Structure to design on (296 residues):
């Protein structure tokens, strides 16, 4: 049963999840900040674009810590590679698909005001029902799209 | 300065957790979406339980954050945009198996392929701001 559900075992998933929750919990308890990630992309664009929607106060005020937070994510990945993992991973997903998928991800996350971290972890932790609806919605469309893409051979 | 260091440290823990959970590999996320490996549910569940404790217990025990001024609250009202945005986000996630956190953390593992996804996310965020940004400001 366990092997069917988790061919690679359950423990690294659970341990990783607990660390992720600790990171988001610590950011909230220490600094009072809600650690979603999709806003990072808009707040970072605020340095480069004069669009009024990108010059909102809430983006300007938070762009510093959001950039530091993203730098931390890269650092954490590098520490993992140097200690428990391997450096220089790659993916079989082709570049064009990463780019097209990325555009949808960036557009949708900003329109819907959250991603897997912002709605999926922070929103659920705050017991916000709009986040629950968002999570159910993106899980459903992602499953449908991934199954269709596999069926039509978009990705091997 | 203190806030930046806290964000950097928590980000590092987040990135380490994502890497340990192999969420930085799009293949693992796609395997979940195709019902071949349900590990992602353990990642999400484990993360939500710990974060839930912090979000629910913290403000009841503490007048303010240990090293900050106020506990931030997300006030964005629910609207059709939440559902449409989440559906579009899900389509992209299901196509390539990448979401914002893992795309950033994966760079630290040296997976430079993810730069394509990051470029796409920046373009998508810009398009949203350019063409739907004004109504965004009105609803808030």
């Amino acid at each position: 049963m366990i092997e069917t559900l988790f061919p690679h075992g359950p423990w690294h998933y659970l341990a990783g999840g607990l660390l992720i929750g600790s990171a988001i919990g610590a950011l909230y308890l220490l600094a009072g900040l809600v650690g979603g990630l999709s806003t990072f992309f808009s707040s970072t664009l605020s340095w480069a674009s004069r669009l009024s929607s990108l010059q909102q106060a809430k983006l300007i005020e938070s762009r510093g810590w959001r950039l530091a937070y993203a730098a931390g994510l890269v650092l954490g990945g590098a520490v993992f590679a140097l200690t428990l993992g391997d450096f220089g991973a790659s993916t079989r997903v082709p570049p064009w698909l990463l780019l097209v998928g990325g555009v949808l991800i960036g557009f949708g996350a900003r329109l819907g005001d959250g991603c897997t971290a912002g709605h999926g972890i922070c929103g659920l932790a705050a017991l916000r029902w709009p986040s629950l609806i968002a999570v159910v919605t993106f899980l459903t469309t992602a499953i449908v799209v991934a199954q269709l893409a596999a069926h039509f051979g978009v990705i091997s | 300065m203190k806030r930046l260091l806290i964000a950097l440290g928590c980000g590092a823990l987040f990135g380490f957790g994502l890497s340990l959970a192999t969420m930085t590999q799009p293949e693992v996320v796609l395997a979940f979406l195709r019902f071949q490996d349900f590990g992602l549910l353990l990642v999400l569940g484990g993360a939500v339980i710990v974060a839930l404790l912090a979000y629910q217990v913290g403000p009841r025990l503490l007048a303010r954050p240990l090293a900050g001024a106020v506990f931030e609250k997300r006030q964005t009202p629910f609207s059709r945009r939440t559902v449409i945005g989440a559906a579009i986000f899900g389509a992209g996630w299901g196509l390539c198996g990448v979401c914002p956190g893992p795309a950033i953390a994966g760079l630290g593992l040296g997976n430079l392929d993810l730069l394509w996804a990051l470029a796409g996310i920046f373009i998508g965020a810009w398009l949203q701001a350019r063409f739907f940004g004004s109504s965004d400001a009105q609803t808030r």
In short: Chain B touches chain A through 119 residues (CB under 8 Å). The longest helix of chain B spans residues 114-139.
